[in-house]
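Researcher: I'd like a structural prediction for the single chain below. Treat it as a standalone chain; there are no partners to consider.
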Amino acid sequence: MPYQNTPHLIDETPGTKHYCTCGESANKPYCDGSHETTGKTPAKAEIATAKQVAICDCGKTGTSPFCDGTHAK
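Model: Treating it as a single chain, here is the predicted structure.
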């Protein structure tokens, strides 16, 4: 599954999350282990409180796993 040029907007719950950074997960934005042959690793994030987050799916963000708007430049 290729990268997309828009972020995933998620109403996230508290806890440890592992987000896809390889673009291959069938369960985007979450990692499903598809990165095993890509040389990339998932981005781990601690979500302290329930909130909406924008998860990068262009692969170019400087604030992984969160979108920084790079896809729009």
